[in-house]
Design goal:
CATH topology: TIM Barrel
Pfam families: TIM (PF00121)
EC number: 5.3.1.1
CATH class: Alpha Beta
Keywords: Gluconeogenesis, Glycolysis, Isomerase
CATH architecture: Alpha-Beta Barrel
Helix content: 25-40%
Family: Belongs to the triosephosphate isomerase family.
Radius of gyration: 17 Å
Distance between the termini: 16 Å
Catalytic activity: D-glyceraldehyde 3-phosphate = dihydroxyacetone phosphate
Bound molecules: phosphoenolpyruvate
Length: 250
């Protein structure tokens, strides 16, 4: 397997002060991190520039969202062009909190992905099912529907700029992690969907991250699964254990 291990840290709307932000970055800067892992951290928009300036250069910085327009009368939004101009190379799109709290549809996420890639950003594309959908046996169908909207707007070569994060909504921030088998099965289904909807080559190369209550205690077993190429980490990315998760394959 040649896919590089990839760990993203989604700070969400944390921390609440610049002092706490600086100590978080400082602890990451001091940590002994596996040089074989690609690490991307996503602070809140207001902290993107100071974090980008302060963080070690082997850690990349992502926005947690962006809009589809370069500029204009769109109060409260951040444009992909502005992110690129600020030296930010990544963006998280389609996080379940954006989908549920801010009513982003799969088509919105697909359009944002299209524009982000056109502007030069790389994308962590989040997908995943709710508990009701899992219990109804719809995990595969839901993930495929979310992906289909993106497949419709991307060309094959665009997928080299995309990392998929499979994040079951019932596992995000709940302390209820998917079993290794649930994660592996969902990842294998996503990869086989990409093989049929895009190409075998893209399916082989695309990194599929697991997200949902990943901790230092559960990351090593998850990281052993064949189709788990890394993690998108929320809560634990704000703690020293984030370094252990980055080093899950060490
Ligand atoms: C996330 O926000 O993407 C996430 C996976 O959160 P947590 O790790 O806290 O479940």
């Amino acid at each position: 397997m040649t896919r590089t291990f990839f760990v993203g840290g989604n700070f969400k709307l944390n921390p609440a002060t610049s002092a706490a932000r600086d100590s978080l970055v400082e602890s990451l800067n001091k940590a002994d991190l596996d040089s074989n892992t690609t690490v991307v951290i996503a602070p809140p928009t207001i902290y993107l520039i100071p974090v980008q300036a302060a963080v070690r250069k082997d850690v990349k910085v992502a926005a947690q969202n962006c809009y589809v327009k370069e500029s204009g009368a769109f109060t409260g939004e951040t444009s992909p062009r502005q992110l690129i101009d600020a030296g930010i190379s990544w963006v998280i799109l389609g996080h379940s909190e954006r989908r549920t709290l801010f009513h982003e549809t799969s088509e919105d996420v697909a359009q944002k992905t299209r524009v982000a890639i056109d502007t030069g950003l790389s994308v962590i594309l989040c997908i995943g099912e709710t508990l009701a959908e899992r219990e109804a046996g719809k995990t595969k169908e839901v993930c495929e529907t979310q992906l289909k909207a993106v497949v419709a707007l991307l060309k094959e070569e665009d997928w080299s700029k995309v990392v998929i994060a499979y994040e079951p909504v019932w596992a995000i921030g709940t302390g209820k992690v998917a079993t290794t088998q649930q994660a592996q099965d969902a990842h294998a289904d996503v990869r086989s969907f990409i093989a049929s909807a895009v190409s075998a080559n893209v399916a082989n190369n695309i990194q599929i991250l697991y997200g949902g209550s990943v901790t230092a205690a559960n990351c090593k077993e998850l990281a052993k699964q064949q189709d788990v190429d890394g993690f998108l980490v929320g809560g634990a990315s704000l703690k020293p254990e984030f370094a252990d998760i980055i080093n899950a394959r060490k």
